[in-house]
Amino acid sequence: xxxxxxxxxxxxxxxxxxxxxxxxxxxxxxxxxxxxxxxxxxxxxxxxxxxxxxxxxxxxxxxxxxxxx
Length: 69
What we know:
The chain is mainly α and about 70 residues long. The protein has five helices and no strands.
């Protein structure tokens, strides 16, 4: 699983720490860290909560680009 730098960038743009985002979506900071590092695959429910907290769409944060398209 690849690192999710898009979450990190969106979070930083809103001046939010991992702890801030984790609290906003109801998970531990360690969970947010694992998601950003690509060590944890969040549920769809958690993905939606992250998107809402960061004012982004699922496509903007979680869609994997296919280089062959």
